[in-house]
TrEMBL record, chain A:
<feature type="domain" description="Dehydrogenase E1 component">
    <location>
        <begin position="96"/>
        <end position="388"/>
    </location>
</feature>
<comment type="similarity">
    <text>Belongs to the BCKDHA family.</text>
</comment>
<protein>
    <recommendedName>
        <fullName>2-oxoisovalerate dehydrogenase subunit alpha</fullName>
        <ecNumber>1.2.4.4</ecNumber>
    </recommendedName>
</protein>
<dbReference type="GO" id="GO:0009083">
    <property type="term" value="P:branched-chain amino acid catabolic process"/>
</dbReference>
<dbReference type="InterPro" id="IPR001017">
    <property type="entry name" value="DH_E1"/>
</dbReference>
<keyword id="KW-0786">Thiamine pyrophosphate</keyword>
<dbReference type="Pfam" id="PF12573">
    <property type="entry name" value="OxoDH_E1alpha_N"/>
</dbReference>
<dbReference type="InterPro" id="IPR050771">
    <property type="entry name" value="Alpha-ketoacid_DH_E1_comp"/>
</dbReference>
<comment type="function">
    <text>The branched-chain alpha-keto dehydrogenase complex catalyzes the overall conversion of alpha-keto acids to acyl-CoA and CO(2). It contains multiple copies of three enzymatic components: branched-chain alpha-keto acid decarboxylase (E1), lipoamide acyltransferase (E2) and lipoamide dehydrogenase (E3).</text>
</comment>
TrEMBL record, chain B:
<dbReference type="InterPro" id="IPR005475">
    <property type="entry name" value="Transketolase-like_Pyr-bd"/>
</dbReference>
<dbReference type="Pfam" id="PF02780">
    <property type="entry name" value="Transketolase_C"/>
</dbReference>
<dbReference type="InterPro" id="IPR009014">
    <property type="entry name" value="Transketo_C/PFOR_II"/>
</dbReference>
<dbReference type="Pfam" id="PF02779">
    <property type="entry name" value="Transket_pyr"/>
</dbReference>
<dbReference type="InterPro" id="IPR029061">
    <property type="entry name" value="THDP-binding"/>
</dbReference>
<protein>
    <recommendedName>
        <fullName>3-methyl-2-oxobutanoate dehydrogenase (2-methylpropanoyl-transferring)</fullName>
        <ecNumber>1.2.4.4</ecNumber>
    </recommendedName>
</protein>
<dbReference type="InterPro" id="IPR033248">
    <property type="entry name" value="Transketolase_C"/>
</dbReference>
<feature type="domain" description="Transketolase-like pyrimidine-binding">
    <location>
        <begin position="24"/>
        <end position="199"/>
    </location>
</feature>
<dbReference type="GO" id="GO:0003863">
    <property type="term" value="F:branched-chain 2-oxo acid dehydrogenase activity"/>
</dbReference>
Amino acid sequence: MADRPDADREAGANKPALRLHVPEPKSRPGDTVDFSHVPVSQPGKQPRPDEACDARETEGLCHDLIRVLGDDDRAHGPWDPKLDPDTLRTMLGHFALVRAFDERMFRGQRQGKTSFYMKCTGEEATSVSAAMALASDDMVFPSYRQQGVLIARGYDLVEMINQIYSNKGDKLKGRQLPIMYSSREHSFFSISGNLATQTPQAVGWAMASAIKGDSRIAATWVGEGSTAEGDFHSACTFATVYNAPVILNVINNQWAISSFSGFAGSERTTFAARALGYGLAGLRVDGNDALAVYAAQRWAANRARANAGPTLIEYFTYRAEGHSTSDDPTGYRSAQEREEWPLGDPVMRLKNHLIALGEWDEDRQTEMDREAAERVKAATKEAEKNGILGHGMHQPFRTMFEDVFEELPWNLKEQAEQATRERLIKFNGGRPK
Amino acid sequence: MSTAEMSTGVTEPKGANNDTVRRLNMIEAINDALDIMLERDPDVIVLGEDVGYFGGVFRCTAGLQEKHGKTRVFDTPISECGIIGVAVGMGAYGLRPVPEIQFADYIYPGLDQLVSEAARLRYRSATEYIAPMTVRTPFGGGIFGGQTHSQSPEALFTHVSGLKTVIPSTPYDAKGLLISCIEDNDPVIFFEPKRIYNGPFSGYYDKPAEPWKRHPQSEVPEGYYRIPLGKARTVTEGEALTVLAYGTMVHVAESVCREKGVDAEILDLRTLAPLDIEAIEASVKKTGRCLIVHEATRTSGFGAELSALVTERCFYHLEAPVERVTGFDTPYPHSLEWAYFPGPIRIGEAIDQLLSE
């Protein structure tokens, strides 16, 4: 009974008062930036276990940071994927295109050509380099910030812009918010606005591939903020229970809109370390190091393809821009963060690596950037022939009722007829006969 | 039809191509449908909590894993969001998953995957991806299941565009409808009224339970047959009033009408979405009176939709206001189950009211 408070005292009065911990980022607008907590490991020093290893052997890598590119712009250590210069230039070309695309689409939103856009600035490697490490028919279940996967898989820019403009060329018939792409032809799953729902779906797809004795694997992307969703827990559990051939990519860009990663649980552990509790292999990777991203994704892909199990990869990066065109990050974080991010910029780092190899130079980079901008501009003009949002060149309104079900039920038929009458009233100036 | 007639000889199976008929209860009929579809289509996969080795807590999947193998019929972690989420992914791959949720009361953790994903996938991807899945789940009360083993959440699903909702009331329908659901390319919620798994229910909980084998609708043809979705079944033809019901309440309503000697036309809706509006309209226009019966709570229940449709479409044929007999607007109680359940007294009162106007 010694732990009980005295009968004549208030309950708990003999104990220290409990305090709720509410995480707070290191810096807010106007503050000096402190990135001392950001791990900057020495490139090349992280071991590369066998791809078929027991998941427990990855424990050290879950708390470290796999890096390949050093300050000397050279590749180091066992994770160097030893890509040939042509492949590196292709990767750099995709980076240039993604960046040019983001710039122009952001501007298009500001010009009122569409309602919404989301950039991936600073995170290009986590989609482009990862996608290049997969087979083109491996199925990807992206979140909304993996436009780099579509670019790396050669998706038509005009199709992308048609979707963003919701115009009459939009393959998704103007039903979806801009950037919620879908391309079955590119093994790119339909993007949903509901966060993390794609993660158990990716696991299910991978289970299906295993059930059918296929050789294709699945990969999914989710932000660190969305790992707090219950779906992510389900995905990890199902992945490990069925040894599903799947890669769970967590893009830790430090921010979920205005909430820093502490609100997803980063203060006391890493996102990669969650893998260990599930029995998944875990890797924590410098997400701005294109070579490290490629190598980690390839390691996980080989592991999955060999039936050796699923992998959770945390790509440690920084969301350099606002969350979306509807967001102003100066309201919650220091503008200096982007400048002082210790892991640099993925595009610059890959460019400098190619220059250090003697395979690239500033003039060619300038030319590449110019060509990318031209390509996006040409695609934009082409797409604008199909209309921009709100200028009337959208899909026929009856398509609104299609594809809810395979066949139109009676109630949707009636509602489609109602919509037809409304159009006649609106455009023919009177009730239809 | 009297109880005596129901217990006599084998009648002709309806709508089947197969000559051999067995008398099955609803559990056996569901098991048979799953077995046939696993056999016919290598893309059909059965998954859920305890459905594999053990054969399901209600025995609906008994023997299926042994016969079809562990990669076709398997147990899952206890995660409804995971079960439905992986089923969506399997559907995207090209499989035809049949996930089970052990009780409809536990479907809510999977609701986001059903509402935001399965139901919207065809629409949002403009048919690039579909979710051809059938979520089987036992529902309804009358078994002393208390708050979390008795609920009837069908209205949460009929409100979602892109989902189909199907509820059988007999072994014959359970098999034929489930086969149709599994073959359907849209996501379907298949609610199994667990009160009538083993036999129809008169509504008199204090009388001995009837087994299915005494009921003509327990004659289930062997082999493959389908009952189309979106088509109601006329349980009894009549002139005095139309009763709209589904699941357990079909039997309760039938027993009350028989007892009262009311010349009722009872429609078993079978599919709530898409609804057989033609059958409803034709019947109410003939009888001029409409009673809607469901176990689910009253406010914003599916009965409200039915009542609105009947009023909109049959207004000038109605001779009395549309009546709704439902569960009360409370959580499902344990000890007071039979005060809550819309049984013979509540239905009888509504019928008297309808016929007196």
